[in-house]
Amino acid sequence: MTRGGRLAQMLFRLIVVLIICLPACVLQAKSKKPAASGDSAGVRTRTIQLPRENKINALAYEGYSNGLLLIGLGEPYAAIDNLKRAEKADPQSFEISLALAELYYSLKDPSMALKELDRTGTRNAAYYRLAAACYQNLGDLDKAVDAAVNLAKLAPDDQTPYSFLATVYRQRQDLDSCIWAYENLARLAPDNARVWNELGQLRLRTQAFDQAKVAFQRSISADSSSANIIAFAALSDLYSIAQMPESSKVILKEALALDSTNMLLHRQLTSIYAEQDSFALALPHAVMAAQLSPLDRNNLRRLGWVYLNLDSLAKADSIFTNLIENGEDLPINRYYLGHIALQEHDYARARDQFGRLVAMEDTLAGRWIDLGYAQRMLGHADSELVTYREGLQHVTADSGKVRLKFAIGAALERGGQVDSAIAVLEDVVASAPNDAEALNYLGYLLADKNLRLNYARDLIKRALDIEPNNAAFLDSYGWVFYRLKDYDKATEYLSRAASLSRDATIFEHLGDVYSAQGKTAEARQWWQKALDISPQNAGLTAKLKQ
């Protein structure tokens, strides 16, 4: 409450007292309801209960009433003198002490205000309301908080202490207490959308997702206009977290109907459609987000990524190239340009982009593997191996080192250095015993070379235990049983693999198993299926001619 407002309230209170309490010897007054306060700590006053009816109380009343009149006339220090005389006449009157305390507070003397408040020992809602404001002005937040908590206990339907406590608890990062304060504010102001939004955000931070969802729903119920778009966006995020993308899309579309040019909403819809691999549906929202915020490079990059996934390589290339030319030479832009070049079979350009990328981020294994792959596609097998081995000198993470060693082993195997490849891959599976890809690769290599078949079978079984429905692993397992001449099990696992993946190698292996069993018709059927997928495979053509 402003000083003028407080003085006007006191003057009004005095007039009421004078009207009710004539003659002066009848010294009684009725309480009024508390008036709302506008000051930062929520100080409010109540009509003062007048002193008891006797000669001393008459003196107290005279000093009290004169004090209020003087306050109204803008004479606060003369008012203090009169209120002090009233206090001397009735030293047990909390009402007189409260009037003095409020006057000191209005004069920016919170210390004297507290001294007056404490004089009678009374501890009621009026005491804690003013005490909280005084302590706050003195910078003693701990005592201000204690006073506000006590006020909340005595006046649980008063918003003032909860508003103050919510602010302090937020500053202190005391999320649980802050949530308690906002829950009470929401209880007292159930139609306040902002309060529900704040409560929802706090619950999000504590990962109370279901409760946060309820809060944002209540916020939207309180205000479903475009002014409350933030609640729609937050509720959409919660549905995404809960793996409910369809509900998330419904909420975002409702929000876009209210505000069709909201960049945040278009960006969120882009992400949801992209996560569902619905890039054609993501595209218009990605375009709109980029148009609405043309200087936001993240939006441009997201649009380029959508174009890349739609195989609109020229448009994607243009976006990432422009980003680099305009000063954003970031690893992510080089990464995308490198993969665009791979899809365009421009392996020299891919090598250049990945080479620049390695210079920026030489501790990430993936960067070296991409560069090595570009070298391989250029036919530079030696450079590929050199790249992986150089990467081992820079990559720091153990998982990254394992990936590079795996790449080295695979490169050695492709180059015909089988013994060296096996040695490297055995080191990989020893270092990473749960690396299913490495287990399968080594197992299949041994089976294909007809080496250590029982060991190969065990390796592939370990891979299948990790990924039981991996078609490539099932193919390897069937193939090792073929090498072991256990054709029934070979047929079982290869048939499962064929049901999961339309792959020429799997079909050819299944044909080989049927051929070994003398089932020529079935063998030819699967070889033909394999040849339909891989028509340039001379080995398949030869088998069908037999």
UniProtKB/TrEMBL annotation:
| Pfam families, per database record | TPR_16, TPR_19, TPR_21
- InterPro entries this protein is in? SecYEG/CpoB_TPR, TPR-like_helical_dom_sf, TPR_rpt
Q: Where are the TPR repeats?
A: 193-226, 504-537
Keyword annotations for this protein? Answer: TPR repeat
**What positions does the domain Ancillary SecYEG translocon subunit/Cell division coordinator CpoB TPR occupy?**
482-538
Coiled-coil annotation reads none
Does the record's keyword annotation contain Oxidoreductase?
no
Name of the featured protein:
Ancillary SecYEG translocon subunit/Cell division coordinator CpoB TPR domain-containing protein
Taxonomic classification, please?
Bacteria, candidate division GN15
